């Protein structure tokens, strides 16, 4: 009986405090939502200034195009290998992926290309060839300069060649290579460096 | 002597760096009107640990110095430009602040990137000089072509410009759009916009020509070609020959003459007298003014003869375009081999028959 009375008393105290809290909360809410304090309705105009910085950014999304070790087969005088999956008269590993360059920035770019070696310096031998080709991965990604045709293999030299007058943001182009290796080419590990240059169209 | 060549050639392509690289901002632009001295900060981005050598080239490079020579994993570079009182290089000068990745030198063909920030310096020409930039984007017939003509005053003196844009189709003059006279102060520019209504135009290739007379005497000109499209697809090319006795790939090259993408495009090949051998291709999407290839397979084993006639139809939107095609059936190697063997057997049979006749006659003569 004593325990029941105690429980009733505690319950009454809890109820009184709850009602007090409720009244207090109501007062605060009324104060908050009173005019010029807080409302979902706009009471004046505001200006948001956003400055977006121009970013020149490019990603060479494919790398390590590597035909591995190979040789000219049979009695052939040369072999031709490319990054389109073709291996002719040789036993290198077939590759079907070239170098993909993506414009990751927010401005159009001028894109150029340079090799530090031509076919003679790179591969050597008789009638060797070291060619490159640019194609659009995304339609309209690259607007080439007059006289430069996308989808055509060109012989590499050591001059800087402009390949896109305008390379659109968030688009990709692909660069493929084709090598003709004669039977009297240089032996061992052959090396060359290709430089992909870019800046904002100005 | 048997010639046998074996080359152990290691060819590594792109064994160099594979990376993201860039610079921010991409460019600065200043107007030079006397002595100038200032700093330009470029923030280069390279992957962690990647080394890049810095360089300056282009116009006016001799007036620039950099605060460092090399970057590792990117960083800020300050280019200090100090131009003298007189610079004999009027027009737009572009100074390139570059960061070129250093090749790892491991052998093979390395790919390195060469990122460049630009400082564009506009130096006025003596007297009056105006350059134009006319932009005329492609559209579809009936839409507005938003012509935009920017007039740059590259001279030392302010000018008053009298501007117009003329529209031509195949060299034939169509109309002139005239603008109010404007004043352009030295090294400043103004842009004039006009929405060209093409509802009376036909599809095709056009040229917009801007003519700006400045200060009553000199004339500046800029041309910009543009296209007006229509909802039209044309068949450009298709497979002319197929191999007999097999499923043979059939390609159809198509071109869009529309200034918006066209989706849900597909081809149907109906072969006369044999509907089973034709195909309906999967759908593709063509971007504006672009070409694409549709692909299907013809069951040539169902067909006889040396050629077959068919109707090639391209369906797009609610439209279609058809063309009667004649396709050559190439005899396969097996067929050629069969005829060679048959011919050989016939010749052999004839020879055996002749020998048998000869032997028979010889025996008859001996018996006599």
Describe the structure.
The complex is a heterodimer of chains A (202) and B (368). Chain A is an alpha+beta fold and 202 residues long. Chain A contains 2 helices and 13 strands; from the N terminus they run H-E-E-E-E-E-E-H-E-E-E-E-E-E-E. Chain A folds into 2 domains: 1-35; 58-200, Immunoglobulin-like (Sandwich). Residues 28-39 of chain A have low confidence and may be disordered. Chain B has 368 residues and is mainly β. Chain B has one helix at residues 333-367, and strands at 9-12, 20-24, 27-31, 36-45, 51-58, 64-66, 70-72, 75-83, 91-101, 109-123, 130-135, 139-140, 144-153, 159-169, 172-178, 182-184, 189-197, 204-214, 218-229, 233-238, 241-243, 247-256, 262-271, 279-280, 284-286, 291-299, 307-316, 319-330. Strand 2 of chain A pairs antiparallel with strand 1 (9-12) of chain B.
Average pLDDT of chain B, rounded to a whole number, is 88
- In total, the number of strands of chain A is 13
- State the secondary-structure class of chain A: alpha+beta
The third-level CATH topology of the largest domain in chain A is: Immunoglobulin-like
Helix content of chain B: under 10%
CATH class (first level) name of the largest domain in chain A: Mainly Beta
State the helical fraction of chain A: 10-25%
Q: State the domain count of chain B.
A: 4
Low-confidence parts of chain A = 28-39
What radius of gyration of chain B results from the CA coordinates?
A: 36 Å
Query: Which series of helices and strands of chain A comes N to C?
Result: HEEEEEEHEEEEEEE
Distance between the termini of chain A: 92 Å
Q: What is the level-2 CATH architecture name of the largest domain in chain B?
A: Sandwich
Instruction: Please report the distance between the alpha carbons of the first and last residues of chain B.
Output: 60 Å
């Amino acid at each position: 009986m004593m325990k029941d009375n105690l429980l009733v008393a505690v319950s009454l105290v809890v109820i009184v405090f709850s009602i007090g809290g409720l009244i207090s909360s109501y007062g605060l809410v009324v104060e908050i939502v009173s005019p010029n304090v807080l409302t979902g309705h706009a009471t004046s105009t505001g200006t948001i200034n956003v400055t977006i910085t121009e970013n020149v950014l490019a990603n060479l999304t494919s790398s390590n195009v590597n035909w591995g070790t190979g040789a000219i087969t049979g009695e052939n005088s040369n072999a031709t290998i490319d990054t389109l999956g073709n291996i002719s008269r040789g036993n290198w590993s077939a590759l079907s992926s070239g170098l993909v360059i993506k414009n990751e920035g927010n401005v159009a770019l001028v894109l150029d290309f340079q090799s530090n070696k031509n076919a003679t310096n790179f591969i050597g031998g008789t009638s060797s060839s070291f060619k490159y080709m640019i194609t659009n991965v995304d339609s309209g990604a690259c607007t080439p300069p007059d006289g430069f045709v996308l989808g055509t293999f060109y012989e590499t030299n050591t001059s800087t060649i402009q390949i896109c007058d305008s390379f659109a943001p968030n688009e990709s182009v692909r660069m493929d290579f084709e090598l003709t290796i004669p039977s009297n080419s240089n032996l061992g590990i052959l090396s060359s460096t290709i430089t992909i240059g870019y800046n904002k169209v100005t | 002597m048997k010639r046998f060549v074996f080359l152990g050639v290691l060819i590594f392509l792109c064994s160099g760096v594979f990376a993201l690289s860039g610079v921010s901002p991409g460019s600065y632009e200043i107007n030079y009107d006397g002595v100038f001295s200032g700093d330009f900060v470029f923030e280069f981005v390279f992957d962690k640990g990647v080394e890049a050598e810095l360089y300056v080239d282009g116009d006016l490079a001799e007036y620039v110095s950099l605060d460092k020579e090399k970057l590792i994993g990117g960083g800020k570079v300050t280019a200090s430009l100090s131009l003298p009182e007189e610079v004999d290089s009027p027009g737009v000068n572009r100074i390139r602040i570059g960061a070129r990745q250093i090749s790892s030198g491991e052998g093979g063909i390395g790919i390195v990137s060469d990122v460049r920030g630009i400082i564009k310096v506009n130096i006025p020409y003596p007297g009056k000089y105006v350059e134009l930039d006319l932009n005329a984007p492609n559209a579809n017939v009936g839409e507005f072509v938003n012509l935009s003509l920017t007039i740059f005053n590259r001279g030392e003196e302010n000018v008053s410009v009298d501007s117009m844009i003329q529209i031509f189709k195949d060299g034939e003059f169509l109309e002139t759009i005239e603008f109010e006279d404007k004043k352009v102060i030295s090294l400043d520019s103004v842009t004039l916009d006009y929405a060209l209504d093409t509802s009376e135009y036909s599809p095709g290739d056009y040229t917009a020509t801007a003519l700006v007379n400045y200060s009553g005497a000199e004339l500046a000109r800029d041309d910009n070609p543009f296209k007006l499209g229509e909802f039209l697809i044309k068949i450009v090319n298709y497979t002319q020959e197929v191999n007999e006795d097999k499923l043979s790939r059939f390609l159809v090259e198509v071109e869009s003459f529309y200034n918006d993408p066209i989706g849900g495009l597909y081809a149907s090949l109906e072969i006369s007298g044999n509907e089973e051998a034709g195909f309906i291709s999967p759908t593709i999407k063509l971007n504006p003014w672009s070409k694409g290839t549709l692909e299907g397979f013809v069951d040539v084993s169902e067909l006889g003869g040396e050629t077959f006639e068919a109707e090639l139809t391209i369906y797009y939107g609610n439209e279609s375009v058809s063309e009667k095609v004649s396709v050559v059936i190439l005899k396969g190697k097996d067929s050629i081999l069969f005829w060679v063997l048959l011919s050989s057997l016939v010749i052999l049979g004839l020879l055996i028959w002749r020998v048998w006749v000869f032997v028979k006659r010889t025996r008859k003569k001996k018996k006599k």
